[in-house]
């Protein structure tokens, strides 16, 4: 597709087509589908059965579409190494996982939010907030490392901002992980081996890894405990490349003559040279989790969770360039085909990260299902140690040390506190209410050092800091108006504050002004249970997504003044509506669902070029209006066609367009970045007997753009955002009562596809597991 805009008439026709498909699908004869989410067939809105002994972020009443998956389905159908792999085949979701153990760019994308909008989704594990709302973008990924696949009991996903129990960051989705808690003594161990054959540009190599995991748990009277230890040691493929535009070369006979550069085209279809591969990460991640629970009385339970995550990362690189003697070239002036190009010491350089993060969660919850229930929960996420090291010396000399910079984020983190109540005066009426507080603290200091590998920071180069706080009151009221009708009406009142913002360089410290905002977000849902197990639902909700610390306190210092900053940055405001028709058959074993969704967002927060000022600057700005309309079709079935065959499938069409953007008018009428027009998933799993299970998964994502003006017309390249169609297979076998083994292949067809960085190519995993 070479056009960079969508004609208005075509967009109208697409919208009409989506509406027509939604109506036609809702009238389609019923088929059967697997009951992955536990649903109350008599209820007008879905109710998820959550064990009251486990902390969860979910409200009791769910006023929106919900999907989920259980541990057993994950084990049978997904080659899961990281926690985010559990979301791989759920409708309309994509995690931008570039390699195994991707800890800093694995952003969750949803229906109307791309992989650049990390702050438009919420991820929880046992009630602990894992979403990194210190910023919005690829480097603010949820802290997936605080959960391992072996711990997961189930995952639930709520689509859209329709529950008053969540802040405006729920505009895309809320993901809730529930991890295991034993009822008797149990022990588990698993060993996994990984291998990827990666071939791209001048790189052709096999990258391997291994994962070791063990768990113990028991319940003894009123006390229960769970311990999980996990280590991942992985070599990922290169994710970045050194490039030079051919047009930037200067005709000259000077510079070191080199060979080995690979000709290609960038996303704007301009000719460039690919000179080397960088960002080849070797990561060793250690995870420890202990959960304790104690029944203080028959009506009251206290639980505590401690999570520890450590990551040691060392990156490698490969220069494709060779001098006349065949030696690799990393920097300096080079000559390619009679043109001179300059390579700085940082064009090809290594990095090193040392991270040690802690998480705490405390929960006190009533256990009786009476007229009134309550819960108090608190959590803390702490960057106990967080340093990144970068050299300023040239390779290969930098491999032994030399000058560089250290980025230290120690002291960064967030904490949450919540008080929740549920009042049930009768079986037809449920009221949920609560108070929530979230505090975010960012501290970043960059220092010069004479030894980038082992030295201490010696001189301040720059620093950045800021705090935000969100306090909320919410109320949500659910009424069963009649046996077939149910309504949920709610609202959320929020008070947001930002302060302590400061920016500094080697000799100047400048402070930002404080900010505060108030917002009210109403929510409403109505459902009707018709005959023949049809359910019709309509939901509407407003979401106000406040600016994050990094968005608000952006900028740089010039002549003792902060520049490239917008002190009046507005919150992002969205109105979202959803219409759903759902058919349940075979006592909940089969579900067919069609959901038409629409979102209108004003003041969307994006980094873009501001053309209203001279010279133009690039910073975080508000985009006037973005409109998103789409249709999601889901079909799932157990024992379809013949016994043991299950189907899980979904197709999503999305039309997301920028309607208003005063600071960058060329983007008006263009597609919102990183949201594909089509998404589709299909999982076929077959269990011929109790010991053997097999699965085939297919994932598809259509055309998308990375730039606001859709100028990136060449998608299959570094910096590009491409379509893809990949297949995954898995075979799981129960060797004995306590032993099982599995082998799987992801990207079986070895598709080379991109989301700015290259995704994983064909990779094989093999595991053996012991369960007692």
Please describe what this structure looks like.
- One of its GO terms (molecular function) is siderophore uptake transmembrane transporter activity.
- This protein has one domain: TonB-dependent receptor, beta-barrel domain (Maltoporin, Chain A), CATH 2.40.170.
- The protein has a 26-stranded antiparallel sheet that branches. A 5-stranded mixed sheet has the order 1-6-7-4-5. The protein has a 4-stranded mixed sheet with strand order 12-18-17-13, with no helix packed on it.
- It is globular and about 85 Å long.
- With 772 residues, the chain is mainly β.
- The termini are far apart.
- 4% of the residues lie in helices and 55% in strands.
- β4 (121-125) and β5 form a beta hairpin.
Offer a concise description of the structure:
Helices cover 4% and strands 55% of the residues. The protein has 772 residues and is mostly beta strands. The strands form six sheets. It has a 26-stranded antiparallel sheet that branches. A five-stranded mixed sheet has the order 1-6-7-4-5.
Strand content: over 45%
> Which CATH architecture?
Beta Barrel
> What is the overall silhouette?
globular
Instruction: Tell me the count of domains.
Output: 1
CA radius of gyration is 26 Å
Total beta strand runs: 41
Q: Please name the fourth-level CATH homologous superfamily.
A: TonB-dependent receptor, beta-barrel domain
What's the number of helices? 3
Helix content: under 10%
Secondary-structure-based class equals mainly beta
CATH topology: Maltoporin, Chain A
Main sheet properties:
26 strands, antiparallel
Distance separating the two termini:
54 Å
Whole-number mean pLDDT: 91
Any low-confidence stretches, pLDDT <50, length ≥5? 1-50
């Amino acid at each position: 597709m070479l056009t960079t805009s969508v004609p208005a008439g075509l967009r109208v026709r697409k919208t009409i087509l989506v509406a027509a498909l939604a109506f036609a699908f809702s009238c389609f004869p019923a088929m059967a589908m697997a009951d992955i989410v536990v649903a109350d067939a008599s209820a007008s809105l879905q109710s998820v059965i959550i064990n009251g002994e486990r902390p969860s972020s979910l409200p009791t009443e769910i006023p929106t579409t919900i999907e989920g998956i259980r541990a057993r389905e994950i084990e049978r159908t997904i080659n899961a190494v990281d926690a985010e792999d559990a979301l791989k085949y759920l409708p309309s979701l994509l995690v931008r996982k570039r390699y195994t153990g991707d800890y800093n760019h694995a952003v969750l994308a949803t229906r109307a939010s791309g992989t650049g909008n990390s702050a438009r989704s919420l991820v929880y594990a046992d009630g602990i907030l894992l979403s990194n709302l210190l910023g919005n973008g690829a480097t603010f990924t949820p802290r997936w490392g605080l959960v391992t696949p072996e711990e997961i009991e189930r995952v639930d996903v709520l689509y859209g901002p329709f529950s008053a129990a969540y802040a405006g960051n729920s505009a895309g989705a809320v993901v809730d992980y529930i991890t295991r808690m034993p009822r008797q003594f149990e022990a588990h161990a698993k060993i996994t081996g990984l291998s990827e054959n990666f071939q791209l540009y001048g790189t052709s190599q096999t990258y391997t890894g291994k994962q070791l995991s063990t768990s113990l748990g028991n319940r003894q009277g009123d006390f229960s405990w769970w311990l999980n230890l996990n280590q991942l040691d992985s070599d990922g493929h290169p994710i970045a490349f050194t490039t030079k535009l051919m047009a930037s070369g200067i005709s000259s006979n000077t510079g070191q003559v080199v060979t080995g550069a690979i000709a290609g085209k960038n996303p704007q279809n301009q000719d460039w040279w690919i000179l080397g591969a960088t960002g080849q990460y070797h990561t060793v991640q250690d995870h420890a989790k202990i959960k304790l629970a104690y029944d203080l009385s028959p009506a009251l339970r206290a639980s505590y969770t401690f999570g520890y995550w450590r990551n040691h990362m060392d990156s490698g690189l490969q220069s494709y360039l060779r001098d006349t003697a065949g030696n690799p070239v990393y920097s300096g002036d080079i000559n390619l085909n009679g043109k001179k190009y300059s390579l700085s010491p940082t064009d090809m350089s290594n990095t090193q990260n040392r991270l040690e993060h802690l998480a705490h969660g405390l929960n006190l919850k009533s256990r009786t299902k009476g007229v009134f229930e309550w819960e108090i929960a608190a959590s803390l996420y702490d960057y106990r140690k967080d340093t990144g090291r970068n050299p300023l010396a040239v390779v290969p000399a930098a491999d032994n040390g030399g000058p560089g910079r250290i980025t230290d984020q120690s002291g960064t983190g967030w904490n949450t506190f919540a008080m929740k109540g549920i009042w049930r005066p009768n079986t037809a009426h449920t009221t949920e209410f609560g108070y929530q507080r979230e505090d975010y603290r960012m501290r970043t200091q960059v220092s010069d050092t004479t030894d980038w590998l082992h030295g201490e920071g010696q001189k301040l180069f720059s620093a950045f800091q800021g705090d935000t706080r969100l306090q909320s009151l919410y109320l949500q009221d659910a009424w069963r108006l009649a046996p077939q009708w149910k309504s949920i009406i709610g609202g959320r009142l929020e008070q947001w504050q930002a302060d302590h913002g400061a920016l500094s360089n080697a000799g100047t410290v400048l402070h930002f002004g404080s900010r505060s905002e108030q917002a009210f977000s109403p929510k409403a849902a109505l459902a009707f249970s018709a005959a023949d197990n049809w359910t019709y639902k309509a939901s509407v909700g407003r979401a106000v997504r406040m600016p994050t610390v990094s968005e608000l306190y952006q900028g740089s210092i010039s002549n003792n003044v902060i520049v490239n900053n917008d002190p009046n940055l507005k919150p992002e405001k969205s109105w979202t509506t959803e219409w759903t028709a759902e058919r349940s058959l075979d006592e909940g074993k089969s579900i067919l669902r069609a959901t038409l969704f629409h979102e209108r967002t004003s003041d969307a927060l994006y980094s873009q070029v501001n053309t209203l000022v001279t010279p133009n600057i690039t910073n975080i700005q508000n985009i006037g209006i973005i409109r998103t309309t789409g249709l999601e079709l889901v079909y799932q079935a157990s024992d379809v066609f013949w016994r043991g065959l299950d189907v899980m499938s979904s197709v999503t069409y999305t039309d997301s367009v920028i309607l208003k953007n005063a600071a960058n008018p060329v983007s008006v009428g263009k597609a919102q970045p990183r949201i594909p027009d089509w998404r589709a998933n299909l999982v076929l799993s077959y269990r011929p007997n109790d010991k053997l299970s097999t699965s085939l998964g297919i994932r598809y994502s259509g055309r998308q753009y990375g730039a606001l003006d859709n100028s990136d017309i060449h998608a299959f390249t570094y910096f590009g955002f491409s379509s893809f169609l990949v297949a995954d297979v898995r075979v799981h076998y129960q060797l004995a009562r306590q032993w099982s083994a599995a082998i799987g292949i992801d990207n079986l067809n070895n598709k080379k596809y991109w989301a700015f960085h290259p995704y994983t190519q064909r990779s094989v995993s093999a595991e053996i597991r012991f369960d007692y």
